[in-house]
Amino acid sequence: MMRCATMTKLFFTLLLVTILQGCASQPHHETLPIIPPKHSLSEIPTSEELTIIDVYDPLEPANRVIYFFNYQFDKYIFLPAVNAYEFITPDLIERGISNFFSNIRETINFTNTLLQLKFSRALKTAARFIVNSTIGIAGIWDPATHLELYQHREDFGQTLGHYGLGPGPYLVIPVLGPSNLRDAIGLAADSLLLNAILSNIDHYDELRFWLPFYFVEGIDQRHRTNFRYYETGSPFEYDLIRFLYLKVREANIAK
After folding, report:
1. How many Cα atoms within 13 Å fall on the side-chain side of residue 110?
2. Based on the number of CB atoms within 10 Å of its own CB, is 119 exposed (0-12), middle (13-18) or buried (19 or more)?
3. pLDDT attached to residue 2
4. pLDDT confidence band for 37 (50 / 70 / 90)
5. Cα–Cα distance between 215 and 213 in angstroms, integer?
6. Minimal CA–CA distance to 71: which of 246, 205, 231?
7. Domain definitions of the chain by residue range
8. Where would one find coiled-coil regions in this protein (predicted)?
9. pLDDT, mean of residues 191-212
10. pTM of the entire predicted model
């Protein structure tokens, strides 16, 4: 009996010593490799860079409504008309119509190039217009391009920007699409200029000439524009189009 009690006491003594040794021993820490940072502090974008798509758009709620309206108009009216135009019009005639309207617009290019004091470019634009209007038969053909007299598009919005006028608030114009206050003023001025030039050529009846003229020109421009609403693949298409439009206009003014 005493032997059993002694063995029991010895067992618990050894167990206690083992536990105390385990608590007293230092844990083994595995050394982990040091992973360098993916970006340095100099690569972290600044607050200015983070707001690159923030533009002056105080009318954004209304602009978004007009943007959706333009999508509906494009889908159910504009594109069906363009598809019908492309179906019934041979490619050769389509190119001739596009060349014709492009040649008429050279008057706007020439005027705004002069206003920006780009005299060398103005001379080339005038030469291009003369060649295409004569040899090209009212601009239906484009021999000027083969003579390396390339088109340089200029408008009154670019002229205003050339002299330092800012874009103003961003706008979405019904049917026409993205713009801003400066470019909307420029568009109106260019339209008045074109009307004045063509009216001096002959006394056209406004209703019988201008409406078909702008209708066919609008169909032609949409025919030459590959953009389709809500096919950019971006869930933020409105913001993307706004950003791209303003950047393209900045580039056009700077060139």
Report:
1. 17
2. exposed
3. 46
4. low
5. 5
6. 231
7. 73-254
8. none
9. 76
10. 0.77
